[in-house]
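Data availability excerpt. The first of two example chains:
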Amino acid sequence: MPADADLAARFAEHRAHLVGAAYRLTGTLADAEDAVQDAWLRLSGVDDRALADIRDLRAWLTTVVGRLCLDRLRSASARRESYVGPWLPEPIVTAANVDDVAPAPAEDPLDAIVRDDGVRMAALVVLDRLTPEQRVALVLHDALAVPFDEIAATLGCTPATARQHASRARRAVADADPPPRLPLPTQRAIVEGFLTALASGDLEAVVALLRPDAVLTGDGGGVARTARNRVVGSDKIARFLLGLLRQYGPTALALGRVVLVNGDLGLLLPDAPGDAAYRPLSRRVTTFAVRDGRIAAIYDVVNPDKLTRVSDHS
């Protein structure tokens, strides 16, 4: 095998890991794949002598991807200041059969990525509140076992400062306390009960299936309809959702399909034309976080730029 083909094969062995790491760092597949492609370009440009000095290729590539993602995070922080409404990560929809959670013999790399508890939507939303330096330090060290000396080189700081970034990030994540991932059968029973209550228009039943402190976050990017601000509290969320159903029609939920979104249960709703009585419905991916038998968070991604990789046949 030619040397360049051998190097490409070695890189391919680590590609799924690198995409998962970059997605966890940036929250978007586009940025993740760009970072991984840039990492390959850097690797392929390394001369033979320097290449021979790389003792652990996976670790070397992970550090390179971390540095590339840090640059993207810093740019994204400036761009998001002008973003309309809340920002949510780009959802990964990986399975239509939510009862089949065993890995397929030749699974898509994304199927492996979303089994990581750290890429569930609730966890990524918390990571997005961190500074770029805190996010990189936390993910590289706690999730990917990169030593602080190497993280410090990535961040351009001392190891002590890198440790401090990670420590602050851990405290922020602990304070936010994102709901853990529950078994899919447990999620399904709660979410299907919630959707049934919504379809029936039963306000009390909807409220009962929401935690009192539940939060609904919509991401339309200013180009698609969803909540412009976070909706907090079970009663407010229930009234908001039932109000939407009155606008979009009683059959709106029936158009949706239960799917896996970042490894958790969600709903994929297609575009639906309106009529004289009801508004048109924008294509969306909605997912849920469950805690103690009730829904703690709802994430509604409607920005079409974040749904380009979502197939209606997922």
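And the second chain:
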Amino acid sequence: MDTADAYRHCEKIVRGQARNFSYGLRLLPPPKRRALSAVYAFARRVDDIADGDAPDGQRLTDLAAARAALGTARPDPEDPVLVALHDTAIRYPLPLSAFEELIDGCAADVRGETYEHFDELLSYCRCVAGSIGRLSLGVFGTAGAAGTRDAGDGRSDGRDVARVAHLADALGVALQITNILRDVREDRLAGRTYLPAEDLRRFGCTLNIDSSGRFTDPPDRLAALMRFEADRARDWFDDGMRLLTALDVRSAACTAAMAGIYRCLLGRIAADPAEALASRLSLPPWQKAMVAARALAGAAR
């Protein structure tokens, strides 16, 4: 397959299936936009395998096949996502091992793993979302990491590189916690529970659902639980948003737009937990466009 066609295929996937991210990607120059589209298209493939209707064993086999495809020297020429991702990995220093973490997290979803403590959920969030942040850094590049030198020897300061990676990881955690809060009901109907068991006990909640699909826990307890988790996500956003100072203007605008959309969504969840628990919240397109416009204007200052 022609590489240009492969990238166009990936961009179509992002526009159709990762709409929140597409608003940020539009702010990037074309080469970086194409590269991140390839990253997200492969991530979407992995996520779709985990969320599919196939039996658990088949989904785990398919995830293993996706993992094996990452290690091939030459991609399947008939697979546009792999063709584009292979080209991206040549052009940018992608930490492809981060995809392995993503696959590990999605395998945990298939197995129906639950989390007793927040630290366990944190590890999951770093697998499925922090990994994408680290892959994105490979495309963005980092002004901070490139600008700090050790003793004049021309090498980047490893401490600065680690700091930037930590910030990307923190932002990924914030986005994933927001996703979890947005999808509490949807996930519960699918038999999944992500919120830590220790938090459920703390607020006296079970997340049990009755025959009509409604939570049986007292609404005030559910609201307190959701606001507690939303405050936790805000703390991770506060940490992760410091990443913007390490990025060039267009990359910072892209990141700010994507994070801004999720922060607005988090604000709606915290303001009205009952609405979030009754249906899957999303922002209207005009509001997403406004967030992206503000992100571009803010990054340019």
